[in-house]
Design goal:
The protein is an alpha/beta fold. Among the domains are: 192 residues, 3-Layer(aba) Sandwich (Rossmann fold); 151 residues, no CATH class; 31 residues, no CATH class. Helix content is 55%, strand content 19%. It is built from 18 helices and 15 strands. The chain has a 6-stranded antiparallel β-sheet with strand order 2-1-4-5-6-7. A 6-stranded mixed β-sheet has the order 8-12-13-3-14-15. α4 crosses α12 and α14 packs parallel to α15. It is elongated.
């Protein structure tokens, strides 16, 4: 239960402190007085977002503090799980600093907004006239059935099983994708290996080819120079060998006369023989040198292949190409797949899917078992609200695939008039009918819910007269079991209040500020009379207002 709400420096509120009772709290006031501002401040407590635009004084921080009596709720374990201090009178505080930073506290412990929302959804529910659009929301319709059927435990159990299946499905899909990537890599490695293997690479081949190509490219020059070299060696009378032979013979004839001459003679003999050998090698080379365009093209083609492979695989030498080939051969020989693990994971996934599927069917059975009672309860409520011939049907339609709510789609069908067949609610109901139907649904599921506080923000749009009386009485009945905060513009609803608060504006230091005061009986009569007839409250109007309260 919301016991108190303190607001400071928020929009038009400088400072405000409101204490609520545990029954039907009615909030009234002229349009623009600030009723929505109070609701906006309360939404901060529920985890709503805000920035510096909410600051009345831009140099000061905004503080909204709500005190909740949670003594009747079994949520201490929630506090323990989040390592918060538990208190029967729990204080939730939001602060918006002048720099726009937001902080939230539960019993003075800093908390994240997500944690705050998880807590406050167990404490309070705000329903506005725009909430009627929830009938269009598939999740909301399922939630209505689940709250009435009390299937929350089964839904949580299913969602845990679904999460386990989805996690295993993700593991399986991830491994499958990894397997696919590995196979693609293997195919690529296999291609590269065979390309390098077919190249028949040899160490130092590139250098040899470069030398051979250089030789073949210059065969004409080489042959010419070798020919002239041979001529100089021996092809003329004054050839190099002939002159050296003459010198050798001359020195041989005098070598016996001195040891130095003998040594020179030996060296000349050796040089002569060396040159004779060189002549033979040059002759042999000359005979071998032959220009071959075909051989040159073949060598160039082979060298181009080596260059291409080095460039293609970003390597610098044939040695590195050979190392890569050998590395790929080792990798391919040791390659293994995850086929067995994939099959195992798939079996686990299928088993978890079946478990989740069974849980979803159990949940679906429980929902369908509750819909007759739900329909009767809602119809009884809308009869109280003035729709005497209304019919309301809930259709729980099982599907063929799992989703976060199980396998079901829930539809609401409605007819407000006798003899008119039911049809999908949003296609046939008027605005006023939808408002009353939503109230009937809220009233029905609130009987099953432990939610201690419900806020109704001007959901009475489109109704008046006796229907408004009936709406007020339904709210009064609801407030016997839980706290209601109701913002209304209808005197018939305001008259049902256990506590009645008036929101008004007051000019202070030249600034309009929103204020709230708890009305005593006399002021209540005056306020309801004004709601009935405007500012001019005659004795008759005041009497009618008093009678409305007495009723």
């Amino acid at each position: 239960m919301l016991s108190a709400l303190q607001i400071s420096n928020y929009v038009l509120i400088n400072s405000l402190n409101i204490e609520f009772d545990d029954s039907l709290n009615i909030i009234t006031g002229e349009t623009g007085a600030g009723k929505s501002i109070i609701l906006g401040a309360l939404s901060l407590i529920l985890g709503g977002r805000a920035d510096t635009s909410v600051l009345l004084d831009k140099s000061q921080k905004c503080v909204v503090e709500a005190t909740f009596d949670i003594s009747s709720l079994n949520i201490q374990s929630f506090f323990d799980e989040n390592d918060w201090d538990y208190a029967e009178m729990t204080i939730i505080r939001r602060e918006i600093t002048e720099k726009g930073k937001s902080r939230a506290f539960v019993n003075d412990t800093p908390v994240a907004l997500a944690q705050l929302k998880n807590l406050t959804t167990q404490l309070i529910d705000i329903h506005s006239q725009h909430s009627n659009l929830l009938f269009h929301n598939a999740d909301f319709r399922v939630q209505v059935v689940d709250e009435f059927a009390q299937t929350q435990w089964f839904l949580t159990d299913f969602q845990e099983k679904l999460a386990a299946y989805e996690q295993k499905q993700a593991e399986w899909a991830q491994l499958l994708e990894k397997q696919k990537e590995n196979i693609e890599k293997k195919d690529y490695f296999d291609f590269v290996f065979h390309e390098l293997q077919q190249a028949n690479l040899r160490e130092n081949e590139q250098e040899e080819l470069e030398n051979e190509i250089d030789f073949l490219t210059h065969t004409e020059t080489i042959k010419t120079n070798l020919f002239h070299s041979l001529q100089l060696f021996s092809e003329s009378d004054d050839s190099l060998l002939e002159k050296l032979r003459q010198i050798k013979n001359l020195n041989a004839s005098i070598s016996s006369y001195h040891t130095d001459l003998k040594e020179i003679s030996k060296r000349l003999e050796s040089s002569y023989l060396e040159l004779k050998d060189l002549q033979g090698e040059i002759t042999a080379l000359y005979d071998r040198v032959d220009y071959s365009p075909e051989l040159l093209a073949e060598k160039k083609e082979r060298l181009d292949l080596l260059y291409h492979l080095e460039q293609k695989y970003h390597l610098k030498s044939v040695g590195e190409l050979i190392a890569k080939r050998d590395e790929l051969e080792t990798l391919l020989n040791n390659f293994s797949t995850d086929d067995e693990k994939i099959v195992s994971l798939q079996a686990e996934r299928d088993e978890l899917y079946q478990i989740a599927w069974d849980a979803a069917h159990k949940l679906s059975d429980l929902r369908r078992a509750s819909i007759v009672e739900l329909q009767h309860s809602v119809v009884a409520k809308i009869e109280e609200l003035g729709i005497q011939d209304g019919r309301f049907e809930v259709k729980v339609i099982p599907g063929t695939s799992l989703h976060k709510n199980g396998i079901d789609e829930v539809q609401f069908w409605f007819s407000a008039n006798k003899g008119v067949p039911v049809a999908e609610l949003e296609k046939v109901a008027s605005g006023g009918e939808i408002s009353r139907l939503m109230l009937a649904v809220k009233a029905t599921i609130s009987d099953k819910s432990i939610l201690p506080t419900i806020v109704f923000d001007e959901i009475d749009v489109g109704i008046s007269g006796e229907v408004a009386n009936k709406v007020g009485r339904v709210m009064k009945t609801m407030s016997h079991h839980r706290q209601l905060l109701v913002i209304t513009h209808l005197p018939q609803i305001a008259a049902q209040a256990t506590s009645h608060y008036k929101v008004y504006k007051e000019t202070i230091n030249g600034l309009n500020q929103t204020k709230v005061r708890l009305l005593d009986r006399g002021n209540r009569i005056q306020e309801i009379a004004q709601m009935m007839r405007g500012d001019s409250c005659s004795e008759v109007t005041l009497k009618a207002a008093e009678e409305l309260i007495n009723e």
